[in-house]
Amino acid sequence: AARLVTPSAAVARDVADEAPHAATRVRVVPWGVDAGFFERAGAGAPPAALGTGYVLVPGGARPKKRLAAVI
Questions:
Q1: Which helix (H) or strand (E) is 4 found in, with range?
Q2: Distance in angstroms (rounded) separating the CA atoms of residues 10 and 20
Q3: 2-49 residue pLDDT tens
Q4: Of 36, 39, 68, whose CA–CA distance to 55 is shortest?
Q5: Could you tell me the sign of the dihedral formed by the alpha carbons of 37, 41, 43, 47, in that order?
């Protein structure tokens, strides 16, 4: 491939570590977020079923997102 696109510098470093010969072709292009995601959906309390004090941390089964640091 002429270019390898990664969403973050951390992933770019991982690619360079795994494939040093390709390190010069790696480019970081952050994932974009549509401006609509920043609009407030509405004021009010969270649904009673959820309560408060929850944090969503998307991830997989592998320990790579430093979940312990989030908690």
A1: strand 4-6
A2: 15
A3: 888 988 899 999 989 988 998 999 999 888 877 777 666 665 656 666
A4: 68
A5: negative
Q: What's phi and psi for 17, nearest 5 deg?
A: -65, -40
Q: What is the CA radius of gyration of the chain?
A: 18
Query: Token match 């959820």: residue?
Result: 50
DSSP-assigned letters across all residues of 18-50: H-GGGGGGEEE-PPP--GGGGS----SPPPTTT
Residue type, 34: D
- C-alpha 49/C-alpha 60 separation (Å) is 25
Instruction: Provide the token pair at 51.
Output: 């309560």
